[in-house]
Specification:
Elements: H1 2-19, E1 28-34, H2 41-48, H3 51-54, E2 57-63, H4 67-74, E3 81-84, H5 86-95, E4 101-109, E5 113-118, E6 131-134, H6 139-150, E7 159-162, H7 168-173, E8 179-183, H8 186-193, E9 198-203, E10 210-216, H9 218-222, H10 224-244, H11 248-259, H12 263-270, H13 281-296, H14 306-309, H15 313-318
Parallel strand pairs: 1-2, 1-3, 6-7, 6-8
Antiparallel strand pairs: 3-10, 4-10, 5-8, 5-9
Amino acid sequence: MAGKTTMIAAVAIAAAALATPAGAQTPLKMTLFGQPSVNNDSIWLALERGLYKAEGLDVTYRLFPSGTTAFQSFQTGQGDIVMTGDLPSVQYFFRSNGNYRTIAAIERDAKGYVVIAAKEIAKPQDLVGKTIATRVGSTGSWFISEYLKKNGVDASKVTVKNLDTQVLPAALCGGEIAAFFIWQPIGSRTLEICPDKAHQLSDATGYVQGYLVAGARPEWLASAEGKDIATRWLRATIKGRDLAEKDFPAVAAYAKAKLDLSEKATRDQWDTNTRPLALDKVYYDDFCSLSHWAREEKLTDQPVDFTKLTWPDGLRAISAKLVDAPPPPC
């Protein structure tokens, strides 16, 4: 009888094993730092549609007001992949003595970066003698510099205040600042809060093209597990991109449920999003322009060497077409 019981148990175990999906393993855990901005929509739909789970990943998604703020936690050793803007990624690379690699350009655009100003500010020259704001150290700092310079406004005649993104609408609507330079949907939200006091003065077209890039630590990427996780994450995010760029209702539903964003505020940024999920020539060209500006402003003192700043292995493992050859240091 005991032998028969043992045989039945063995058959049951074998049957259970056959019923388990092929390749099923314990999910690989990772922590992703992101922002409450629609340029993260490729990630949102990858989460919502279970694409990370399908790649065998267990993703913890933490939100920060900006990439600059996210780096404050990242530099303490927290997080595996961090989403940030262009300037923060370059500055952090130098500040951390190279302890960072960009693994993909997730999104880029110019129209998604806006100048929201008080009604009485009708032209760039009206900012002279006024206080404006951005998240200092973010792409907003680059935007301010290029906007003032190209419009012939002496930067020394304008006071720049450092405010985190969630504070900007109240600061403008309350008259604390005359304008702010930041990415969407902060601008759209502000116009919803106080349409009688604020308007959009400009977007970043002709000034800068802002980026959302994904990055990680080189030591983690050099490990077998880190490389595997990063590559799986990129593959799932590319699939999320393919959904996000075609399915506005799904993006809007996520933005409403998770961030309480109106459909219009979501649409304003979704319409401008460009999602390369690559390390391409446009990325290199834009970051060379950023590097030249950063050195002129004494924010960095070295050219950007893309063979050190970027980690192309993950994208290349998915498709060689996603990675262009980097230019010389610039």
